[in-house]
Design a protein that fits this description.
Elements (H helix, E strand, L loop, with lengths): L1 H11 L7 H10 L6 H11 L4 H13 L12 H26 L11
Family: Belongs to the eukaryotic ribosomal protein P1/P2 family.
Organism: Lodderomyces beijingensis
InterPro entries: P1/P2_N_sf (IPR038716), Ribosomal_P1/P2 (IPR027534), Ribosomal_P2 (IPR044076)
């Protein structure tokens, strides 16, 4: 991932086709040890490809990945009851959080 990030950073900086040496010097400038076999694998995979097009293709694939969320009830009555219960729970949690927040400091800070 660090090699791809360095590659993309160099592309954003104006280097349309970063070389292995470009990426290595960038990573080494911030103290990252470079594994030449991993770097060469990345460059081999990206050779002859447009990075903008690869990103666009990745975005379309990412859009189809489920991101979780609550299950939708099949009946409207059950959904309304669940929604009401969830609203009550949220109100109770907000009250509890207000009580807990007052005890957060306890007389000392995180970095004391």
């Amino acid at each position: 991932m660090k090699y791809l990030a360095a590659y993309l950073l160099l592309v954003q900086g104006g280097n349309a086709s970063p070389s292995s040496q470009d990426i290595s010097s960038l990573l080494e400038s911030v103290g990252v040890e470079v594994e030449s076999d991993r770097l060469s694998l990345l460059l081999r995979d990206l050779e002859g490809k447009d990075i903008g097009q690869l990103i666009a293709e990745g975005n379309t694939k990412l859009a189809s990945v489920p991101s979780g969320g609550a299950a939708v009830s099949s009946s409207a009555g059950a959904g309304a009851a669940a929604g009401g219960a969830a609203a009550e729970e949220a109100a109770e949690e907000a009250k509890e959080e207000e009580k807990e927040e007052s005890d957060d400091d306890m007389g000392f800070g995180l970095f004391d």
